[in-house]
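in:
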């Protein structure tokens, strides 16, 4: 989504086009980045209890975003995601603080360069797609 912020999201807002964000957790890369880190204290202002809610609230609070599909098959993760429905969404100022917090984490700027689905092994179509992406990057 970060790349979309400059052109796609403003264009969607100008045209009144709905925007659906699929897999906002960067194929689980965001969770590996924050693993073992506590939520920032200001996350309590919007009733975030975990990083999933933090990320979801940041994404869905963008004025151009209509809907988010977290893409999980894990019931525990789904329950965490649903928790993002509680509390307020961040305003522009808090969104900025949330982003600055993420940008302060070592490796955030290189997130797209890390392997997708850290710690998970997939077969079939997903495995072939990952291998194809890796081959193109070489």
């Amino acid at each position: 989504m970060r790349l979309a912020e400059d052109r796609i999201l403003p264009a969607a807002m100008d045209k009144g086009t709905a925007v659906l964000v699929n897999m906002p957790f960067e194929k689980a890369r965001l969770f590996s980045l924050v693993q073992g880190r506590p939520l920032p204290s200001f996350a309590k202002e919007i009733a975030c209890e975990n990083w999933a809610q933090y990320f979801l609230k940041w994404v869905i609070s963008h004025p151009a975003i209509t809907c988010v599909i977290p893409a999980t098959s894990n019931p525990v993760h789904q329950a965490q995601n649903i928790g993002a429905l509680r509390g307020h969404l961040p305003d522009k100022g808090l969104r900025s603080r949330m982003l600055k917090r993420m940008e302060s984490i070592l490796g955030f700027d290189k997130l797209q360069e890390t392997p997708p689905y850290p710690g998970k092994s997939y077969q079939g179509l997903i495995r072939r797609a990952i291998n194809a992406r890796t081959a193109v990057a070489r």
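note: The chain has one domain: 2-137.
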